[in-house]
Amino acid sequence: MDVVHFDDASVIRTLYLDDLRGNDPTYAARLVYRYTIHQENGEVTKKKISDKPLELPKINHKKYDTKPYRYVYGAGNTKEGNWLDDVTKIDVTTGEHKVWYQKHCYPGEPVFVAAPGAKEEDGGIVLSVVFDSDAKNTFLLSLNAQTFEETGRALVPQILPMSFHGDYFG
Q: Which among 14, 40, 44, 65 is most buried, taking Cβ atoms within 10 Å?
């Protein structure tokens, strides 16, 4: 089981509106760990997957739900204490990661969308709704899931309310 690991529940307090409006650091992303429960003896082991903080993790659920997978996508931090300000892809087998970042842009939960007929686990795109605080608008970001290069964006001429979660139903 792969889990974004927080030491305690104090992250909940940092998400209260009064705290979000303050200037204190927000520790909304943490490291991903793999917990393994050994069936023979019930022993639990914990292994860090990557040194890159992440939250709101998503995988290619359509093909890999309940199966071994290699890639996880999420919103992350470029600097600890920042609000979620990047989109991250982590290879859970190597711990390596790729990041999309644009200054003063704050993405929501990224969603993987497979390309029709894709053979590779990361064959497709990653979508995220992003708030741009400089431009005072929102855009839908599209990234090539393999290279993590931007493939496009659809501008919304006003600010959409921030949301943690997003889904794609295909």
A: 14
To which residue do tokens 């650091």 refer?
Answer: 25
Beta bridge partners of residue 143, listed in sequence order: 126, 150
The tokens describing 34, both together, are 């793999």
User: Tokens 């989109």, residue?
Assistant: 87
Per-residue pLDDT of the chain (170 residues; tens, 9 = 90+): 899 988 888 878 777 778 777 767 677 788 999 999 999 999 999 999 999 999 999 999 999 989 999 999 999 988 877 788 999 999 999 999 999 999 999 999 999 999 999 999 999 999 999 999 999 999 999 999 999 999 999 998 888 876 656 555 55
Phi and psi, residue 28, nearest 5°? -90, -10
CA 117 to chain centre: 24
pTM value is 0.89
Nearest 10 degrees: CA dihedral of 168, 136, 23, 76? 30
Cβ–Cβ < 8 Å for 110, 126: yes
CA-derived radius of gyration, the chain: 17
